[in-house]
Amino acid sequence: MKLKISFILLAIFFFGCKSSKNKTSHDGKSGATKIVNKLHYKQEKHLKNVKQLTFGGDNAEAYWSFDDKKLVFQANNIWGLNCDQIFTMNITDDLSKGQKPQLISTGTGRTTCSYFLPGNETIVYSSTHLADAACPPVPKKEDYGNKYIWPVFEGYDIFVADTKGNQLKQLTFEKGYDAEPTVSPKGDKIVFTSTRTGDLELFTMNIDGSNVKQVTFELGYDGGAFFSPDGTKLIFRSSRPKTEAEIKEYKDLLAEGLVQPTNMELYICNVDGSELTKITNLGNANWAPFFHPSGKKIIFSSNHKSKHSFNLFMINVDGTGLEQITYDSVFDAFPMFSYDGKKLVFSSNRNNNGTHDTNLFIADWVE
Q1: Pairwise CA distance, residues 171 & 180, whole Å
Q2: Helix, strand, coil: what percent of the chain each, to 5?
Q3: Element (H or E) spanning 4, and its range?
């Protein structure tokens, strides 16, 4: 789950859209002191022609088709949904009047982490629908000392559907959590996170589900992985406990199917797991990384400057040259460059009139 929309809701009060006018007032819903409705901030020099794609609810994890014409994403709290489901849309579609895009998942269970497969007609995604048609309950943070926790539901498996929502194939069958699949630009492999070894580790498999190989082996939550443009490397975020107390807490939570991913850093490795390198040491949560088209930089979301706001940053693969990319007051995350490198899609609570909506935005990328 590239950290999931629930992480956003809990880390800060957020989400948004609807109005195009600038407005400032007290926001009684989210706890924020100002409502700032903007599509673009003047400091965002790498973004041009920012356009809002969705209008209400919780929309996130939008990823491009190989031909850069479509997006697949997850949505909730709109169109009668009460649990995340997977949808696809053309980047030219107008959803501003409440139109419902094409449903890809079954409409039952909880879903996350979808990605186009080569050919642009099939999609891989994670779902709990076979384990239970009902939406699985989310644990209450009040039961865990008000700490942010996130469930890794055992019912998650990885499936393939076509762009009309026809369910084609199940790719994983192991007991436990199998989710967070993304696809190599080469079109030959999928990387995903699984608990099949007893810990949350990265694995790769062929796009037909065969030839599964373990990539990471160190204790901690390794997830949200993406391939480099040439398909030879992986970038991912990890929450790795070090002290005796941290290790105990991590293991105790994982035994209950939970993690606490509030302190995460970014790592790069070869696809086989070799040459593992930690590239950030910023503190707080650094996540949702994606390779720049050059393969030499990483764009990612972070709240290292302030626990109350996530923005997009860019850093060289050797950990140098940190640069802030977005300047929203609450939340920007889930960035992905189009395959031609000309556009960036991301999720944000900007322009939401102080509601808890999060929406998808697309922008031209300026070097």
Answers
A1: 13
A2: 5, 40, 55
A3: helix 4-11
Contact 180, 172 (CB under 8 A): no
Task: Report pTM.
Answer: 0.92
Integer-rounded Cα Rg, in Å, for the chain is 19
| φ, ψ of residue 201 in degrees (nearest 5) | -120, 160
What lies within 8 Å, CB to CB, of 77 at 6+ separation is 57, 58
Convert the pLDDT of each residue in 170-192 to its tens digit: 999 999 999 999 999 999 999 99
**Token output for 89:** 């849309």
Q: Which residues contact 227 (CB under 8 A, 6 or more apart)?
A: 182, 183, 184, 185, 186, 189, 191, 233, 234, 271, 291
Encode pLDDT of 203-249 as tens digits: 999 999 999 999 999 999 999 999 999 999 999 999 999 999 999 99
- Do 316 and 308 contact (CB within 8 A), yes or no? no
183, two tokens: 């696809």
Instruction: Give the C-alpha separation, 139 to 237, whole Å.
Output: 23
- The helix or strand, by DSSP H or E, that contains position 115, with its residue range, turns out to be strand 111-116
Residue keyed to tokens 């373990």: 214
CB 346 within 8 A of CB 50: no
Alpha helices in 184-263 (DSSP H): 244-255
Q: How far apart are CA 227 and CA 122, in angstroms?
A: 19
Tell me the pairing of strands 70-76 and 265-270: unpaired
Residue 149, CA distances (Å) to 50, 62, 311, 339 in order: 33, 23, 21, 34
Tell me how far apart the alpha carbons of residues 199 and 216 are, in angstroms, rounded to a whole number.
10
Contact call for residues 358 and 60 (beta carbons, < 8 A): yes
The tokens describing 111, both together, are 């879903």
In whole angstroms, what is the distance from residue 8 CA to residue 11 CA? Answer: 5
Positions of the chain with pLDDT under 70: 1-34
The strand pair at 178-183 and 189-194 is best described as antiparallel
